[in-house]
Design brief:
The chain is of the alpha+beta class. It contains five helices and three strands.
């Protein structure tokens, strides 16, 4: 994947070029670390590459995370009991717990939209043209 130099926090210059670049084992091999000739170094996490390249799976994961955080917030402030939410969704308490787990990336966007609808939240698509 590509990642432009202009997006780096610590930018190389013609007088301070990148001396080395490597997949960093200290960062779980989930980041690339680069070292400038001056000795200064910085890292770029894999997520930055995925976001810059508009990776569909990564964008879906971010969207699911946002939906989940909103659903968690709505569940806390809702006057509807968890049992009633489960009844309206025709699902179990354990499935509801999986829907509310922000680390669960296997759930569907459809089910999250169903949950938010039950909680009284209307989700509207917003279309933004990216360059």
């Amino acid at each position: 994947m590509e990642f432009p130099i202009s997006k780096l926090d610590l930018r190389p210059t013609s007088s301070n070029k990148i001396k080395s670049i490597f997949v960093d084992p200290e960062l779980g091999r989930e980041a690339v670390t680069y070292v400038l000739e001056s000795g200064r170094e910085n890292s770029v996490h894999l997520d930055a590459f995925l976001e810059y390249n508009r990776d569909p799976d990564y964008l879906r994961m971010l969207f699911l995370f946002e939906l989940t955080v909103r659903a968690q917030k709505e569940m806390k402030s809702s006057k509807i009991s968890k049992n009633e939410v489960c009844r309206r969704l025709a699902t179990s308490a354990s499935q509801l717990a999986r829907l509310l787990d922000q680390t669960n990336q296997k759930k569907s966007v459809d089910k999250m939209l169903d949950l938010l609808t039950v909680l009284g939240v209307e989700v509207r698509p917003e279309f933004i043209k990216v360059a």
